[in-house]
Amino acid sequence: MAGGAWRPDLLAGLTVWAVLVPESLAYATIAGLPPVVGLYAAVPALLVYALLGTSRHLVVGPMSATAALSAGIALTHGDGTAAGTLAVALTLALVTGALGFVAGACRLGFLAAFISEPVLKGFVVGLALTILVGQVPALVGVEKADGGFLARVAGLARSLGDLDAATAVVGLSALAVVLVLRRTAPRVPSSLVVVVLGVAAALLLALEDHGVAVVGAIEPGLPGPALPSTDPRDYLDLLGPAAGVLLVGFVEGLAAGSTYAARDGYRVDPDRELTALGGANLGAGLLGGMVVNGSLSKTAVNAAAGARSQRSGVTAAVLTIVTLLALTPLFEPLPEAVLAAVVITAVVDLVDVAALRRLWAAGAASTATAARADFAGAAAALVGVLLLDTLPGLLVGVGVSLVLLLSRASRPHLVPLVRLPGGTWADAGRHPSLEEPVGALVLRVEGPLSFANAAHVRDGVRALSEQRGDPPLVVLDARSVATIDVTAAAMLDRLAEDLTRTGVGLRIAGDLGQVRDTALGAGHGHGLLGRYPDPDAALR
Predict the structure, then answer these.
(1) For residues 396-434, b (16+ Cβ closer than 10 Å) or e, as one string?
(2) Closest by alpha carbon to 137, among 162, 174, 115, 104?
(3) Distance between CA 527 and CA 529 in Å, rounded?
(4) What is the pLDDT of residue 280?
(5) Which residues contact 101 (CB under 8 A, 6 or more apart)?
(6) HEC string for 276-343
(7) Phi, psi of 49 (to 5 degrees)
(8) What is the mean pLDDT of residues 86-101?
(9) How far apart are the first and last CA of the chain?
(10) What is the pTM of this model?
């Protein structure tokens, strides 16, 4: 019975391991680290998350987004040497882990709600494009240019004429094999297959003698726990960058875990996920590994393979330990062009142009500011990543989204209404053939009323009343007004007085109980609120 319960997770863990090993080696190269550092990080990340996490399916390990962030942070805080880059990477993992523990203890998981899905989509697309451009030089055997996305594109364009033919053949062939396998045999671990083929080709054809760069020596065995630095200033200097890495990793992992939790009917706890992510990074940093986070792609592989619990993650960790103890010599002849192909095929699906097109279409087809703001936030994050770098790009996207959110809150949609044949009230602009009520203007405020939008609503009602020639009665349909504050409640009294001076009466229909309670409790709205359940009653 116990063996039967373990069997699906064992098979899923084997499948995850087949993808995890080559991708962990590749993601370490994205961060500018020795490939084995990715494996060092994967083992403690998988085990600690299995102990602390709340998702049954999430796979935690090195990932492209946080690897790219680590590389950028090492450029700023490192000394330019390989040893300096490694020290920064390990310190970053430890600081990120400590911040995750603190954030989880302080129950800060709600902060993920401030990064909208469109902003995250734009950020991921920009990051994927940056990673793709960074991997092409290794794929075809040219020098990699320093700098951001535009500098790398320009450097790549200048150097394509100097590509190494043997490296390009190996890299493009590996890319083609992975793409064909993914299309024709999606359940086959294409990354592992191409790695095996790459190693075999390197040994049989002596590719290194023909100028093809290979991974090289990988120190076998498991690393012992150690601190990368004993100077507290090295850790304090990375607090800001580590917060950004934690935010990005947490959002991606939470999105992946929540997707499969919703599918299988259980709940993922954001606060415990922060704690688990913190523990995974602490374990990775102490054992010589890079920063880690939840992986959407490997989680999808895990779930598709039939995983039912974190026993699949434990299985993948055990197999990775076996790899470190006995199988590292097999990966030493692996061409770097093959690793680049693995990264490119793992990342290319993240360039979700179709999703961006849908956001644009939604904004173009809608009169609502919210729909246009979604595309603006995604575009801001995308352009920010490409022009400014990864973390600044994310912050730009979040900033634009918050500004647009405040703009929407301060300018709620105010629409004239008409009665449909069935008695329902609807937006007059959507039903131009219907006449508005004779002698009355019925309006709907689509959103809460607060100090931020009180003046906008007051001026909008007065302007629409004047456009209609100041009809005898204005009815404000408040059924879509969920909340009100004291400033907005006082505005209703002043609006009623202003309209009365022009011979227009004001009635409020369908106000909710909490709206009435707040307004009347503050001494406003007497005579206006609580008298008419709907616009029809107000017109009688």
Answers:
(1) bbbebbeebbeebebebbbbbbbbeeeeebeebeeeeee
(2) 162
(3) 6
(4) 97
(5) 274, 275, 278, 279, 282
(6) HHHHHHHHHHHCCCCCCEEEHHHHHHHHHCCCCCCHHHHHHHHHHHHHHHHHHHHHCCCEHHHHHHHH
(7) -65, -40
(8) 96
(9) 72
(10) 0.73
